[in-house]
Design goal:
about 0% strand, mainly alpha
């Protein structure tokens, strides 16, 4: 697997799970669309760090920790955005959980 396809696979999986989660009840609400849009923008930062980590073919502990920090930032940003609007709805909570579970952080080879 090429380095780019590894990063692409991780990002595509996260977005796919978000969309599947939002569509599970047959209706994608505006608040779900807004949260998905927020995640999509935030994933650009994660994508850059992920591609950088994959660039030399070795994931270091520092790179793994940085990716975990960015993932936490994405989740917290989504949570804050949802909560500020009118509290976190069940649909938004499902999306937050989906992002937490689906956004993979590659493990360092130096554990």
């Amino acid at each position: 697997m090429s380095l780019d396809s590894g990063a692409d696979k991780i990002l595509a999986k996260a977005m796919m799970y978000l969309i599947e989660t939002a569509a599970k009840d047959g209706v994608i609400t505006q608040e779900e669309v807004d949260l998905i849009d927020t995640f999509e923008v935030s994933l650009k930062k994660y994508e850059g760090a992920l591609r950088e980590a994959y660039a030399d073919g070795i994931i270091t502990l520092d790179e793994e920790n940085r990716l975990h920090s960015i993932k936490d930032y994405i989740i917290e940003g989504g949570k804050l955005m949802a909560d500020l609007a009118d509290g976190i709805s069940k649909d938004e909570m499902n999306l937050l959980i989906s992002m937490m579970l689906s956004l993979e952080v590659p493990r360092s080879q130096f554990r």
